[in-house]
Write a structure and sequence with these properties.
The protein is mainly β and about 60 residues long. The chain has one domain: Rubrerythrin, domain 2 (Single Sheet), CATH 2.20.28.90. The protein has 1 helix and 7 strands, in the order E-E-E-E-E-H-E-E. The strands form 3 sheets. It has a 3-stranded antiparallel β-sheet with strand order 2-1-3, with no helix packed on it. A two-stranded antiparallel sheet has the order 4-7. A two-stranded antiparallel ribbon has the order 5-6.
Length: about 60
């Protein structure tokens, strides 16, 4: 099973449904990886509008 990124929230996961936003629009064509550990204190998380910990793609096609 390969990793896929959600086109909506950019969360990287396995499977066919995003565990965060429950979207089914996932792509295996993504670039960049950012790991958010502290969403409240991270400027990157604020810029990406991320509210939960996790692994996120920077760009999803």
């Amino acid at each position: 099973m390969s990793e896929k990124a959600c086109r909506g929230c950019h969360l990287i996961s396995y499977g066919s449904v995003c565990p965060s936003c429950k979207a089914t629009s996932l792509s295996d064509d993504f670039t960049g990886l950012v790991i958010i550990i502290d969403p409240e204190g991270s400027a990157i998380a604020r810029a990406m509008k991320v509210k939960e910990k996790g692994r996120y793609a920077l760009r999803v096609r």
